[in-house]
Structures are given as C-alpha cells and as structure tokens.
Design a protein that fits this description.
Number of helices: 13
Structural class: mainly alpha
Mean pLDDT: 87
Largest sheet: none
Order of helices and strands: HHHHHHHHHHHHH
Distance between the termini: 53 Å
Number of strands: 0
Shape: globular
Helix content: over 70%
Low-confidence stretches: none
Strand content: under 5%
Length: 313
C-alpha cells in the first residue's frame, strides 16, 4: 500500500516535470527557429510589405515620378480608374490572354507528361526537351519568337507556307504571344504533372488491366481522378501568371502596345501611366485594383477547392 501511494504521488509530479520540460524545449526551439526565419522576414518586410503599404499610400495622392509635392486626393484616382476605358480594355486583353493560355497549357502539359512517363527509350531526352524552354529568360524566348514570326524572314511562315502578319495585325498579334507563351512556360506544368504521375501506385493500373480496362478507361477512371489536385494547382498558378502578362507582350511588340493597342496588358498600361505619363499616384491606384482582382481570383479558387473537398466527403 505504501509503494502504491508513493507512486500515486510521484506520477503527477513526473507528468508536471515532463510538461515543463516540453514547454522549455518548445520555447528554445521557437527562439532558435526565429533566428533562422528572421532574415527572410526582414527581406519580406522590405521588398513586399513596405512597397505594398507605400503603394496604398501613393494611391491616395497625386504623386509624380519625382516623389515631390504629392497632395492627398482621396479616392479620386480610384474613381478615375474605374471610368478609364483604356484600363478596362487592357484588363480585357489580359483576361482574353488568360482564357486562351490556361486551358491549352493545362492540356498540353498533361499530354507531354503522359508521353514522357510512358515512353520507354530516351526518357531523359524527352524530359529535357519539354522542360528546357522554361529555363530561358523571358526576353530571350520572346526575341526568338519575334524573329520566327517576323513576316518575310521568319521561319514560322516559311515552314508552314503562310503569309500571316503575326506581329502587325491585331487579329493575330495576341495569338502569336499565346503560341510563344505555350512553348516557353509549358515545361513548368509538365514537370508538376510528371511528378504526380510517378506518384500514382502501379497496382491500381494492374488491377484495372485484370478487370479488362483498356488504356482509355485507365486514363479516365484512374489517372485523371488521381491528378485532380495537381490540375487545380496548375490551373490556379497559370491563371495568376497569365493575368500578369507583360514581358513577352512588350518584347515581341518592340516595346510597344502592339497593333492598335491589341496586346497592351493591364500591367503594361499601369507602367505606362507611372513611367511614361509620370502619374505615380494613379498607377498605384491601378496596381491596388489589380491586386484586389488577383486576390479575389486566388480566394475564389481556395473556396471552390474547399467546397469540392467537402462535397467529396
């Protein structure tokens, strides 16, 4: 009885001591971890948080590019932006580009990943060929395709026997940028799909084969459902990236807005207002509007994904 009573008394003391030790270890781990995270937090605050806050402040002023004599104008910049037809046209161009690129790049990346995953010989060669263009800087890729699309000397028309004025006709200019973007950026989505394909258990396909399922049925009923999360990620990343169209459109159109302003994106128009018209306050207001649009798209994707997961349960 005495031993049992002593153990009964000692057990809570040991539990309290263990809990105190765990708390001390957590505090020490947080302190040590904080020093590792501190450099990133400092850089994040300097190059993300501070510019964002500064941009919000400037959006309520009539600041110019010199930064001198900025006066508070309230919501005037936002009112002007919402009535600016050129801004809405530029946003429409970015949205049109996104609608063209996202479905094409998603399907193309999936098909290339399937090819690279199932091919038997020279796998590394195919993977390198599909991913290598993504390693090129945006200006290099754009200059290459600008030369390929140039009428009279470009290899694109010569190869396919075309006489299409890709870079000088508003009906084809955006399509030329879409083609260049597909070639340049498909490698990233291809890599995501390829990694996901390699993670699908092989016994699922073996069981399907035993049940008599052909390649099409295995793709539809096994591969695509197993890749639904990666597909959602690819679509979300491509939407966010495509809405920020700038580099390839500017370089391919010789640093201009394209024929009849047909390829002027929202980002390009914002920079024109800030660095050509010197209206930094107005450009900041447009940037905040664009930030809200991007945030709304990202939030909508998160809500849709959450509802889909809850519905699946």
């Amino acid at each position: 009885m005495t031993t049992t009573s002593a153990e009964t008394v000692i057990a809570p003391a040991r539990a309290q001591s263990a809990a105190a030790s765990a708390t001390v270890r957590r505090k020490q781990g947080f302190q040590h971890g904080g020093w590792f995270v501190a450099p990133f937090l400092v850089l994040f605050a300097l190059f993300v948080i501070w510019p964002l806050l500064r941009g919000v402040y400037l959006s309520f002023t009539d600041a110019n590019i010199s930064g001198e004599g900025a006066n508070f104008v309230g919501l005037d910049n936002y009112r002007e932006a919402l009535k600016d037809t050129a801004m809405w046209d530029a946003l429409g161009h970015s949205a049109y580009f996104t609608l063209l690129v996202v479905p094409c790049i998603t399907v193309l990346a999936f098909l290339l990943a399937m090819l690279a995953h199932h091919i038997e010989r020279g796998k590394w060669v195919w993977r390198l060929c599909f991913f290598a263009p993504f390693l090129l800087p945006s200006t290099v890729a754009a200059n290459m395709w600008q030369w390929l699309f140039t009428q009279g000397i470009g290899l694109f028309n010569e190869t396919f026997g075309l006489t299409t004025p890709w870079l000088t006709d508003k009906s084809y200019a955006m399509l030329a940028i879409v083609i260049e973007t597909l070639w340049w950026t498909v490698g990233f989505s291809f890599l995501l799909y390829l990694a996901a394909l390699q993670g699908i258990p092989g016994h699922l396909y073996e069981a399907a084969k035993l049940d008599g399922a052909n390649a099409w049925h295995r793709t539809v009923h096994i591969t695509l459902p197993m890749l639904r999360h990666i597909t959602g990620l690819v679509v979300a990343l491509q939407v966010l990236a495509s809405l920020q169209l700038f580099d390839q459109a500017v370089v391919m159109m010789d640093f201009g807005p394209g024929p009849e302003l047909a390829t002027r994106s929202f980002v390009q128009y914002t920079l024109e207002q800030g660095f050509t018209s010197y209206r930094v306050g107005y450009a900041s207001a447009m940037s905040i509007i664009f930030f809200v649009i991007i945030a709304a798209v990202a939030l909508g994707r998160m809500v849709l994904l959450r509802n889909r997961e809850e519905g699946a349960r």
